[in-house]
């Protein structure tokens, strides 16, 4: 089969198509022919050797897969690598059958980005009606879902996005107000002005100065929910503002829930129900052939797309 193989860390050019052996069957796993492989910021961290877990080389990236079994079932699931390929193995505990009324484009948004958005809001932040919540990258794959889920929960949604087109989309999806996320200088003031005051909760996935500006926009006793560092700047949390305002900081990483028998089935069922009820509209940002994985990574880095990016290995 064909797969993307990384033999070194670096820029998008290290993502090369090669012929590799088919996956070896394993107990408790389903072999699928991959129809979509989700592209996520985690894959960028894997490529640049900044991922939270160590990655051995050579390596096939991709932690989110939609595929078809030999008996014709469609499964969407989470992997620990290996997704950028024509075939993949999905563990039965972290994969779910896709109902016939959910499309491929809808399904590929759910396993990683959809469930992360759901657990950021409901498990980690424990969002309540009328609370104000800041959502970054609000027109991206995860952010666009988080905007809709937060609004569905009755929150007041303040959406960050880098262009007028993206901010208009965030409002269309339910955001109460939007804020230009660039430049980072003065971001806290822009948030406070748009929100009419400090925030109850802020999601944060950029790092660097954006992290500091986001902290400054929280009210005393507010909560910062950390789920990434897309800028590549991890740094240290500043102690003084945390203490001055008694802020709560809660990190979240989806793989910590992989062993939980209830958490992921609960969120997947809720997401599918929301799509069926017309309460959740996943956005497709573009589907690329396997050989265009470098192009897709460049698009992700420039943040010019709207919604979810994916690969179609058999295209």
From TrEMBL:
InterPro entries xrefs: ADH-like_C (IPR013149), ER (IPR020843), GroES-like_sf (IPR011032), NAD(P)-bd_dom_sf (IPR036291), Zn-ADH-like_protein (IPR051397)
SMART domains: PKS_ER
Record domain Enoyl reductase (ER): where: 10-311
A UniProt-annotated Pfam family: ADH_zinc_N
SUPFAM superfamilies assigned to the protein according to its UniProt record, in alphabetical order: GroES-like (SSF50129), NAD(P)-binding Rossmann-fold domains (SSF51735)
Molecular function via GO: oxidoreductase activity
Segment forming the signal sequence: none
Name of the featured protein: Zinc-binding dehydrogenase
